[in-house]
Amino acid sequence: MIHVSKVRKVYKIEDIETVALDSVSFDIKKGEFVAIMGPSGSGKSTLMHILGALDKPTSGSYVLDGEEVANLSEDELADIRNRKIGFIFQAFNLLPRISALKNVMLPMRYAGIPQNVRLERAKKYLEMVGLGDRLLHTSSQLSGGQQQRVAIARGLAMNPSILLADEPTGNIASAQAEEIMAIFQEANLQNHTIVMITHEPDIAAHAKRIITIKDGKIVSDEVNKKQRMAG
Amino acid sequence: MDFEIFTESIGTLAVNKLRTGLAVLGIVIGIGSVIALVSLGQATQASVQSQIQSLGANLLTVNPGAQRSGAVRGAEGGGATLTYEDAKAIESDPLITTVTTVSPEISQRSQVTTGGNNTNVQIIGSTPAYLSVHKVEIGQGEFFTDQHVANMAKVAVVGPQVATDLFGDGANPVGQTIRVKGQTLTVIGVTGSKGGTGFFNQDNVVFVPLTLAQKQLFGQDYLSSMALEAKSPDVMTDAQNQVGYLLLARHKLSDPMQADFSIFSQADILKAATSTTGTFTTLLAGIAAISLLVGGIGIMNIMLVTVTERTREIGLRKALGARKKVIVAQFLTEAVILTFVGGAFGILIGILASFIISKIAGFMFVISLQSILLAIGVSGGIGLLFGWYPARNAANLQPIEALRYE
């Protein structure tokens, strides 16, 4: 359901061309848990932006659920992000000042889902990530790990085609990082597709499949035979 | 735009209360000054109109025009062309159907003395018709009668200001005597207070019988003017024509262009005064609009700062699927709330200010619904106008760039 074919991304700054991705191709099927690994500057962030419909490839094709994303307008991309992609960022990116509940409800609001449905679903996913008792806390009242769990609930709330996580444990203490990975594996068991970008082998070890990328090219793509189970 | 955007915007604006307050203040001052200054202009207009109307809405004035002697044309209004006989003819001619009363008048300033006091006032020689034509009330005593006019009686009716100046506050002048141009006149009445009109103070006048003024005081046969009362304000034009043709015939003139008199109605004066005060109101509103413009620029400035500060938030919202118009709606809502709240407070302050001004200056207190509706519309419009550019900037942010922004 994700079909990436010969994707190339070139940044051009003052006549100097930088190739961030060079002819990258892979497929991801429903229910997979894929870690994309690579050192900084390898192009993994660029790949995440393209997978997340935040950016378009310079050339090549990215088909998500049978839809070619490369040709879409800005508002159509917004709709794709809203319905098909659940983002989890390194810096959590919750809206400050509003409650965990309202943060989880936000993408559903952009989808035009009625308020009572939003509220029910937001509660359900916050309970799933273990924050059923902190529905009305704002981000300043939550620890880093708790904030990231709110972000996961928000990412799952629209029941997206992929949950796209960018260094999800980068700002979190290692004990809490294990909890986050446990939630990912739990979500994966429920048939959610997860793509996780990380440079930490310990974290990548929780995935079922690891794609390694370097200098804009895929250097390995293999099943993780020693998947580490968290919690 | 939904209700949630509204509540969310209120929440966002409440975070930085001082900044929100200062941004709103610009609009408060702008709208407040529009309301106050327009109200001031309208109060001026209304008081001028009511004063002119208090002189009588169906009043026609005939002034002597330039008298021609051969090819030489004399000064306008200075002619000696109107006579008491003209006035009587207008009253009695069967062809004049629209005029009910004619008040022939002769008017001149003169010194008036009594005992140790003296004052310089307008002496008006007329007939009892003056009372009804000019809507003058008698305060004490009585006005002179047709008999007094016919007998050239040495009587006078004084205005309340004259009574106070000559006889002191609260004294009864009726029965006392005054001296005008060497003649001793008995005061038989005092007129009610009417106030000034800007042309002359109607309270500072001495009325005497027309014949007395012509023969004994001023020694002139002609009239300074005639005031005519038409049957109703609707027949003013007819009255003007009928009187005009009669006077042309009496003065043996065939061409209306050569008329040695002019007739104008209270409506003509009213129109001129209204247009003057209207210009004044527009000017005031224009000055106030400039402060409103400055307030609007303040809103735009604050919104631009807000958009820059919230770049990451905007990036996140776009990443989560907010379309451009959702972002535009969010920031426009904030801007419109700012200007609307400013407008509401501005209306209150403007009303309060014009109330205080009207109390201090003694104007009528006038607040028109139009200016309030206009202020509400304009303040909302300013929010849309000055909020649009920052909102568009926000909507055009690229989500990746915005999320990276520190």
Task: Write structural notes for this entry.
- The complex is a heterodimer of chains A (231) and B (406).
- By secondary structure, chain A is α/β, with parallel strands linked by helices.
- Chain A has helices at residues 44-51, 74-84, 100-110, 115-128, 144-157, 174-189, 201-204, and strands at residues 2-13, 16-28, 33-37, 59-64, 67-68, 85-88, 162-166, 193-198, 209-214, 217-223.
- Chain A has a single domain (2-223), classed as Rossmann fold.
- In chain A, helix 4 packs across helix 5.
- Chain B has 406 residues and is of the alpha+beta class.
- Chain B has two domains: 3-51 and 272-404, no CATH class; 82-259, no CATH class.
- Chain B is built from 13 helices and twelve strands.
- In chain B, strands 4-5-10-7-9-8 form a six-stranded mixed β-barrel. A two-stranded antiparallel sheet of chain B has the order 2-3.
- In chain B, helix 9 crosses helix 11 and helix 9 runs parallel beside helix 12 (369-395).
- The two termini of chain B are 29 Å apart.
- In chain B, 41% of the residues are buried.
- Classes of the chains: A alpha/beta (231), B alpha+beta (406).
Strand order of the largest sheet of chain A: 6-7-8-3-9-10
Provide the structure class of chain A: alpha/beta
What order do the SSEs of chain B take from the amino end to the carboxyl end, as H and E? HHEEEHEEHEHEHEEEHEHEHHHHH
Radius of gyration of chain B: 33 Å
Instruction: Kindly state the percentage of residues in helix of chain B.
Output: 55-70%
Task: Please report the distance between the alpha carbons of the first and last residues of chain A.
Answer: 30 Å
**What is the number of helical segments of chain A per DSSP (H or I, 4+ residues)?**
7
**Percent of sequence in beta strands of chain A:** 25-35%
Task: Give the tally of β-strands of chain B.
Answer: 12
- Tell me, what is the CATH class of chain A? Alpha Beta
Globally, the shape of chain B reads elongated
